[in-house]
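Think of the structure tokens as a kind of shorthand, similar to the way a musician reads notation: each symbol stands for something richer, in this case the local conformation of the backbone. In the example below we present two proteins back to back. Begin with the first one, reading the sequence and then the tokens, and try to describe in your own words what changes along the chain.
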Amino acid sequence: MRVAPHDLAPSELAFVPFVSVENMMRIVHDAGVAETIAAIADRIEADFLRWESFDKTPRVAAHSEEGVIELMPTSDGEFYGFKYVNGHPANMARGFQTVTAFGVLARVDNGYPVLLSEMTVLTALRTAAASVVAARHLAPKDARVMAMIGNGAQCEFQALGFRHCLGIEEVRLYDIDPAATAKAARNLAGTGLTVTSCDSAEAAMEGAQIVTTCTADKKQATILTDNMVGAGVHLNAIGGDCPGKTELHRDILLRSDIFVEYPPQTRVEGEIQQLDPDHPVTELWQVIAGTAPGRTGRDRITLFDSVGFATEDFSALRHIHAEALRTGHYVDLDMLADPDDPRDLFGMLARAKG
């Protein structure tokens, strides 16, 4: 077993573990996709319970007509982490991923990075894990049917996470692109889920107790209208994640008990950007900690207005860091200069000339 970074000498820390896409897939398959989502969900929930120990700030975003590039930083005083992530809805038509990402985890005591990791796959796992955490506390306990409105890259991760962690038995799929629904149905075949492909959002909603919306277009859309959402449903809105991008009709929000990750970010980027700035919402960490109520009645509509927050990525990076060291599924990157004398960086360079 490899030595943990905290136990290494400065010269040994010059090499930084790097988890490539290939090694990320090895780590996930070693444990299982659903099991990895569950493990990350447990990390996220544990970190929500120590919410006040984290530095928190809305993500730093650079918007353009084509999409957005964002940095998402946080620290718990021992480790610092950040994710670089983009969101470019038009990418799919050009053969590129809509979302790509990488992340860094570093020690606070000396500033040395201890992990560089791909986060395109990891973000999909983390997003499903965060949805699971919210649903544990907000969804009807007897929920067995979930609707997935939007069947892109996140769809299968959500379905598998909810089956494994909450006992969902049927997933009802709808996307404006039938090819996306067909792709998701193929990928979910043999997973133990009953998969129903639908030709409208209304059909997908039939009998669903949990509804996840996850569409890509950067616009204020109406994926669900007020008359489509009945009493007692839990809404997991994960597609609206930047200014000017929403999925739910405003009237649905006015009927719902709304739960968010970090209000200063969600009020700008989430579904609640449609509401007055002082509209009441509950922070999810408070529900988990038992200081605020979650679902207060069988007929209540609960809405997790999820835009993704840096602490969730931090939790995912901590999990992958531990798993990479445990499994050895990483490579060492020579990315930190390590002169014999910390003051003699030039001398190190000069001697390398040979």
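Once you have a description of the first chain, move to the second and do the same.
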Amino acid sequence: MDSETTPTSFLPVHTCWELLRDSAYGRLALCVDGHPEIFPINAQVDHGTLVFRTAEGSKQREAEGASIAFEADGVMNDGSQAWSVVVKGHASTIQRTAELMSTIHLPLHPWEPGRKDRFMRIVPTSITGRSFDVVPGPPPQQGVPVASDE
């Protein structure tokens, strides 16, 4: 299919938020030591913002107060359409006790072991979303093939 027969649709902001509420994970893009980096994270919508957990380190340090982007994507309509939502904004560590207590109910469970005791909030300055028809064919491969010595 070419772009003339399957145009990209721009999603309204309320649809973007609905998709983000149902999304299990996404990617956080930011600069670390002057270079772009992308980190997989699980984030939850919380009152028009996104909240995620992380450990103290470069992600938390470099995201603090910086311009960042978060992107999540997926498929809908029985796999016939794909979507992508990009949130641009600023991140900050949640430090106030009352604010921390109000985010504790969010289902933010780390994927890897270790302490992830920093809660961070992304406050959007823009949110955009797109959807498009998926080209019929075999489903995309999940994961990366492992190289063989043979």
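Compare your description with these statements about the second chain. Residues 96 and 150 are 56 Å apart (CA to CA).
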